[in-house]
Amino acid sequence: MKILVCISNVPDTTTKIRFAEGNRAIDTTGIQWVINPWDELSLTRALELRDDPSNGIKSVTVAHVGNADSEPTIRKALAIGADDAVRVNAGSSDAYFVALQLAEVIRKEQFDIIMCGIESSDFNGSAVGGMIAESLGIGSVSAVSGLSISNNQPVMTREIDGGREVVAMTAPMVAIVQKGIAKEPRIAAMRGIMMARTKQIRVYEPVPAEPLTEVQVFEKPAPRAACRFIEPDNPAQLIDLLQNEAKVI
Amino acid sequence: MSVLVYTENWDGKFKKLSYELVSYASALAEMLGTTVTSVTIGETDDNVLKELGRYGAEKAINVTGDSLKTLDNQAYAKVISDIALKEGSKVIILANNNSGKALAPRISVRLKAGIGSGVSKLPLNLDPFTVYKRTYSGNAFAHLVIKSEIRILTLAQNSFEVAEKPENIVLEKVQSGIDGSLVSTVVSETQKQSGQVILTDAEIVVSGGRGMKSPENWPPLVELAGLLGAATACSRPVSDEGWRPHEEHTGQTGKIIAPNLYIAVGISGATQHLAGVSSSKYIVAINSDKDAPIFEAAQYGIVGDAMKVLPKLVEAVKNMKK
Ligand SMILES: Cc1cc2nc3c(=O)[nH]c(=O)nc-3n(C[C@H](O)[C@H](O)[C@H](O)COP(=O)(O)OP(=O)(O)OC[C@H]3O[C@@H](n4cnc5c(N)ncnc54)[C@H](O)[C@@H]3O)c2cc1C
Fold first, then answer.
1. Contact check, Cβ <8 Å, A121/B252
2. Residues of A whose CB is below 8 A from B77
3. Structure pTM?
4. Among residues B119, B152, B182, which one ends one of the domains?
């Protein structure tokens, strides 16, 4: 079986977000780009599965839709251990556009398990994985917090509201993963970094696709009122404020 | 033309979330000059369905079928899309919860409908259709234009006030024509949390961080939560250490919640933690370090040792209840 891990290239999660171009884009000066946290965990799990021969995973490929600027992030995924990579040479305009590009890559190269993160930490859309599956007319399981292979078939734990289920699905399928999928993201070792230099990144040109959404303008969240401090020996005052001022208890 | 809202049932019942969705759909329908139709999949009692009329739904469609007993994303997305087409819906509303996130993107591709995900208020503008969307994990908001003719919105839980708007509701029972070949999800085991307030449903949440020092120190925090009818939560290092179960981890890589009240005890307030809780209506911080960033996000704060403050808070809540 072959696994594809879709990765998104996002600002480091501690970045102070600033805007540019009349607030229509974010200011990328000084931003450190990283693999989207979910995708890093998803890649880690894919590699764990590949590294145990009993699972019969032949290869782990990463795919990314982005301009050449994003190659360092792809190289990082290769350094962590992915076997090869695909880049679709286009700016990522919206989830629908990105999903159609990735679906096309999957049609061309054929994968059995396609892994996507539950969301990207920049757009927080939770859309790409499900869109890929629907474009290809294959099954998807969402909120996957565990993935293993049993009798050549993906078996997953999926989170449901207030519980969890164990589900199986015949490949090819899309697993949309979240917390729990792997414990800690795998880190690139020196040898991996050396090897990544020679690994292949196949570049495809995008297929025509019309984005369905467009950001008009960004704004900062409304500032919160300053914190009101209460003396530590007077918690009754806090309870009073919560009851009579905030009216939340 | 109606606004279509997907009202999920939990073992044949609705949760407050379903009423929030219908209330939101009604307010939006009013802006658009149209009505609200709900769709529920799986056996649901007539009396349960009729409840949706109280919040403004004029028609409740209940789809049942042997192949729809458990959530299969592909099959459910087809059911909802087919109804949207039949009803001529121009807006489809789902919850931004596990199932909403699983279904919305599939419906989007079927209907070529753009998604505004995780919205917490009504659209800013109808022409062009513009929604206010959380981005950069809460560090920025976007005015997002949905350009397609049909639009999908997923509503953040606990972000829209339930409002009564009684309507005479018509029920429609539909036997699904979905054949089994579309269903590929095979569920072999289901575990449900019982007896506790579910974190994503909770209106009050009491959460502990590394400042709680050790798992043995949790009882007063749990007691406080019990007295307030609150759910318990924690920061990531706490669940990583195994002090608390993983379901409690809130933040960028955990659960994203928006309770009315979030009480953070011994939590420093890292950006990644705030990414999951910054939409809370009120945040209370209890921390021994007066410069902890959590106080910048909080409206009320106590600088002090959690071990000393928590028992006093428990007492104060008990006194309030007397
Ligand atoms: C990619 C990525 C994703 C992440 N995702 C998440 C996430 O989803 N959720 C999350 O929580 N974190 C996340 N983190 C981790 C985050 O950066 C912080 O490390 C974490 O939130 C800190 O947890 P904490 O506040 O419990 O601990 P600390 O930062 O150690 O803070 C403990 C606090 O307790 C206070 N304290 C100490 N003793 C006492 C006492 N006796 N009484 C009262 N207060 C006391 C201290 O003053 C301090 O402020 C993520 C990090 C990365 C890199």
1. yes
2. 130, 134
3. 0.95
4. B182
Quote the domain boundaries for residue B316.
199-321
DSSP-assigned letter for residue A245: T
Q: What percent of chain B has pLDDT over 90?
A: 94
The tokens of B195 are what?
């007896």
Of ligand 1's atoms, which has the minimum distance to the CA of residue B208?
26
Quote the number of domains for chain A.
1
A77: in domain? yes
How far apart are the C-alpha atoms of A140 and B43, rounded to whole Å? 24
**Total domain count, chain B:** 2
Instruction: Decide which of B155, B182, B209 is a domain's last residue.
Output: B182
CB pairs under 8 A between A and B: 280
Q: What is the ipTM of this complex?
A: 0.96
Phi-psi category of B291—alpha, beta or left, where left has phi over 0 and alpha has psi -120 to 50? alpha
| pLDDT tens per residue across span A36-47 | 999 999 999 999
**What gap in Å lies between CA B82 and CA B130, rounded to an integer?**
25
Instruction: Tell whether ligand 1 has an atom less than 6 A from the beta carbon of residue B207.
Output: no
B105 belongs to a structural domain? yes
Residue B106: list chain A partners with CB under 8 A: 130-131, 133-134, 140
Rounded to the nearest whole angstrom, what is the distance from the C-alpha of residue B220 to the centroid of ligand 1?
20
- Residue pair A72/B90 in contact (Cβ under 8 Å)? The answer is no
CATH of the domain at B132: 3.40.50.620
